[in-house]
Specification:
Layout: E1 13-15, E2 22-24, E3 28-32, H1 36-41, E4 52-56, E5 61-63, E6 69-72, E7 81-82, E8 85-91, E9 107-114, E10 117-118, H2 119-127, H3 133-136, E11 142-144, E12 148-149, H4 150-153, E13 160-165, E14 168-174, H5 182-192, E15 200-202, E16 219-224, E17 228-234
Parallel strand pairs: 3-15, 5-11, 6-17
Antiparallel strand pairs: 1-2, 3-4, 7-10, 8-9, 8-15, 9-12, 13-14, 13-16, 16-17
The chain binds manganese (II) ion.
The site of manganese (II) ion has 7 residues, from loops.
């Protein structure tokens, strides 16, 4: 039996809707600039240049149970924290160099997630040619709802994705508007990293983050057709 110098951190896991078993999280990959109008609002030209990938630590995931209101602690060292609503793809079967037409076999299910962002730190880092971690990979930066198994949802190519703050619509798009669709994203990512069961992919956020700032007390409500609601209060 392995003896540790101290108790290892507990593994992150997320509920699976309608099942007793939980989904153990291994890695969290995120896609940047994946909806045209969002690319424009961030000051770039949308094109088919390769997708931008970055990671968050697995323990940045904060699970919000179905029908409950989660809590997002406003992070330190920022005065411009933004929401990014995203469809999360959960990987159930690993692989490398996955062909695009085989990508679906690797999908376990889907969830609604928030890629919370310290926009001021991210912009400063990008401007200086520095990494994005302090802007993107901070503690509790990835609130998400339960995973819905693909057996229940079918494969998702379309579906309305939206984010509302205190009842006001802030972000809205259809999954079909992704620049790099889910199959292409899985194929491309698997050429860079060997995917494993338990990996999560935040697939990118639509436009509207230009007004995406949150303040303490705000209630964010993310929705995706068929996946219910992700409700999170900023505290
Ligand atoms: Mn994002």
């Amino acid at each position: 039996m392995t003896r540790y110098a101290f108790e290892p951190a507990p593994a992150t896991s997320v509920a699976i809707q309608g099942r007793a078993e939980r989904f153990p999280v291994r890695r969290v990959y995120c896609v940047g600039r994946n909806y045209e109008a969002h690319v424009r609002e961030m000051g770039h030209d949308p094109d088919r240049s390769p997708p931008i990938f970055f990671c968050k630590p697995a323990d940045a995931v904060v699970e919000v149970a179905d029908g409950e209101e989660g809590r997002f602690p406003y992070p330190g060292e920022t005065s411009n924290c933004h929401h990014e609503i995203e469809l999360v793809v959960a990987i159930g079967e690993g692989g490398r160099d996955i062909p695009q037409d085989q990508a679906r076999r690797h999908i376990f299910g889907y969830a609604i997630g928030l890629d919370m962002t310290r926009r001021d730190l991210q912009r400063a880092a990008a401007k200086a040619g520095q990494p994005w971690e302090t802007g993107k990979a901070f503690d509790a930066s990835a609130p998400m709802g339960p995973i819905h198994a693909v057996q229940d949802t079918g494969y998702l190519d379309t579906g309305a994705l939206s984010l509302h703050v205190n009842g006001e619509t802030r972000q809205q798009a259809d999954l079909s508007q992704l620049i790099w669709n889910v199959d292409e994203t899985i194929a491309t990512l698997s050429r860079l990293f060997e995917l494993q069961p338990g990996d999560l992919i935040f697939s990118g956020t639509p436009e509207g983050v230009g007004v995406g700032e949150v303040r303490r007390g705000d209630v964010m409500s993310g929705r995706f057709d068929g996946l219910g609601e992700l409700r999170v209060r900023v505290i």
